[in-house]
Each structure stands twice: as C-alpha cells, then as structure tokens.
C-alpha cells in the first residue's frame, strides 16, 4: 500500500479531504487529554482517502484472518468492506459491532442508514447532489430527480466522479437500484466527463466551452465554488445519493480502545463532520443541509442480497460500453 505500513496498526482512518486535518488535530488533542499518563502505545494513521483508498481496498480483499485488520478502520463509500467475501469471512462471523449509540440524529430517523444487524458503524455521510450550470443548460429544464438526469436532452452533458475506467460506485448503484440496467446505459450516454470533483468546481459557471450542464458532486464541494452567479445547486427530490463514511470496529478492542471509540462516535467529531458539510449521525450534530433534505441510501437489504463487489464491476462495464457508444 505504498508508503502506509499496516503492520501492527491499531487505527487506520482514510477520510474525505475536508476532514483529514481537523480530525487529526482533534484526535491528537483527545489522546493528550484522555490518555495522558497511560503507558499504552497507539499505532495509528489518519490520511486523506483520495490517494490511499483504492490501494487499501485491494488489500482488504486479500485479508485472510481477523488479526491482520486494524482494530478500527474508517473508510468512505461502498468499498471492499461491503463485498461478499469480506462479509462472509468477517462480518457475518460477528467480529465487528456498531459502536454508535442507538439514538442517532433525528435527521436520519427514516433514512434506514443505521445497520439493523449492528455490524457497521456509520459515522457520517458524503452526500452527492447536482450542480447545474444554467448557461450551459440553455433552454433545457433543470433535472429535479436522478431519473430526470437520464433523459435524452442530457446526453453528453453530465460530469460524474471518475478515474481512468472506474466511475463513482454509489452513483452507479443508486441509478441501478432505481432504474435497472437501462438506467446505467442511459447514464453512460448522459456522461461526457469522468472527473475529480475539484475539476467540476472549476468548470461550473466558468462560461468555458464544453462545460458540463450538470455535475454530480459531493455537497461539501459545492461550498468551494467561485463562479456561483449562473450556477444552481439541486438537492434532488428523491434524495442526495449517500456515500457512507464507515467505521469498522472489532469487538475484541471494545474495552482496550473505549476512549478512542468514544472520540470517533462523540460530539466533537460529529461537529467536525457537520461543519465540513458531511452530515453526522451523532444526535447532537448541527448538520448543515437544506431544510427538508432527504437522503437516497441504497439500503442494507440491497447490499446483503447481492455480491456488491461483482455488481459494481458489472455496472462499471455496462456504463463504459454505453459511454463509449458501444451499446
């Protein structure tokens, strides 16, 4: 995994970019205040996930024993921790538990985001919304739902997160759940660019030739846009797509790392996430989302009833064929 050494690691946190620095500072302060005078040596790494998570996901797929896995791991998205092999080999054998209080933020009371079987700890959400460049859109009506984005008038006018031949798994899974394979084919025809959200932010409202009419990006990235005059942010009527920030906590570390677990599920981290426009499940967090905002989560049954890793690969293949005009 490049420059990260996972050997004897207690905690690995691969965080969305706006969380890396504030969480690292708060965590180090927490360690100083709560564990001062204790002789425990804690091996931990807190990193941004942009450059590390792809390689770590590959390593997760190669795990053969629970001892190889850090006691606490935090990652983003529907990644290898949700894949069939990991679920069968580790999750379903009861090695992990949901460390979050049963009482979550009231904003998510009806979202179904909390794991009903108590294995995964969802600490916050990265929410995907639509950013519409009104000049690039022209006379076409703004899309208000994800299905509307699949209409013929948006063909080759959309940008989503993509890198090489890999596109945003939560977007693909959500469209597939709502619209099936036909929806994935339509999305492939709609998408012109597979970009990092920072590229979308630069192009939205810039007036440049070829700018996408609609960009699907994390809500927190919309707060960094400079060209806002001719831009409209759409929180879809059927909910912002949910990309979970997941903490995997081993039951075996519950007593040893109680103070650490308390930090990652506590009010301080909740406010850091909320302040970064990443809605927190902490009941005390003051989440900054539009009034009446809803969340589009694919659901635990959807995950558990499928080989999610294989499905993501299949959807990516169908999407690319359509994107390249081969369907």
Characterise this structure.
This is ABC transporter substrate-binding protein. By secondary structure, this protein is of the alpha/beta class. It folds into two domains: 11-125 and 243-294, Periplasmic binding protein-like II (D-Maltodextrin-Binding Protein, domain 2), CATH 3.40.190; 127-240 and 313-323, Periplasmic binding protein-like II (D-Maltodextrin-Binding Protein, domain 2), CATH 3.40.190.10. Helix content is 33%, strand content 20%. The protein has helices at 17-35, 53-60, 84-91, 134-137, 169-190, 197-203, 219-222, 258-264, 267-275, 300-304, 308-323; strands at 11-15, 44-48, 72-76, 96-97, 121-133, 158-163, 166-167, 191-195, 214-218, 231-234, 240-250, 295-296. The two termini are 36 Å apart.
Key descriptive features of the protein:
12 strands, alpha/beta, D-Maltodextrin-Binding Protein, domain 2, 20% strand, 2 domains, 327 residues
What's the gyration radius in Å?
20 Å
CATH class of the largest domain: Alpha Beta
Largest sheet: 12 strands, mixed
Query: What's the CATH topology label of the largest domain?
Result: D-Maltodextrin-Binding Protein, domain 2
Strand content: 15-25%
Order of helices and strands: EHEHEHEEHEEHEHEHEEHHEHH
Organism: Clostridium kluyveri
Pfam family, one: SBP_bac_6
Protein name: ABC transporter substrate-binding protein
Keywords: Signal
